[in-house]
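Q: Convert this sequence to structure tokens.
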Amino acid sequence: MSPQVEEVVTQVQEEAPKKQTPMSATIEMMESIISETARNQYEQAVADRYMAQTYAKGAGMSEDDARTIIALGRDYGWGAAHSLTRLFMQGGRPRLFAEARANMLAQAGYKWLPVVHTDTECTYQFKYKGEWMLDVNDKPLRLTFTMKNAEKAGYIDNSRGKDGKKGNYDKIPENMLFARMITNFHKWHAAEVDGATIADPNELLDAVVSETEKNIAAKSLSKVEELKERLESVKPEEAKA
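A:
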């Protein structure tokens, strides 16, 4: 065997993929995932702080509240602007506007049609993925919220505040009744809708492992093929020397 052929063969042997034990490969992969996750979270936190400084004043809230809302909205899959229009702070806790609930419910396959919608009563009937939802009596599910309900719960007085001036239930009663109705539906009949896609951790890990193995195999095969081509490119007369 010529020195050139021997050199190429040795290089093929040295550069052949090294075997890893399943445990060492898993540990290396998890360390990489954890490192990437931590870096992404830090970058997101920096971005949230910057966006809060940008939007807080225009949204009429403190930077701390804006940052909390933007971070939570990001977990729901919303951008900063959408988060600030779909979430609000109440009693130190972030809460969803009715429009946000409606958006999430619609994306999940729920639909609602008005039966009665006036300034004193809001009654809707619901479908899920094209089929009417049924109550315990196998009749189409209907949900109602009225001004009497709002008065009994203290919502009307609360909206007027201590000064007694007109509140939202006085100005836009149809909107307020719908907001309460859709909120109740969300809490009572569609609590599984949280705005985020929930993945099975085991399925996620399997997918990561599978993709990582494919990438390693592809790179290893590419390198071996490259070295084989170099070996085959040696002229026959050189191999006989």
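Residues 22-59 form the longest helix (38 residues).
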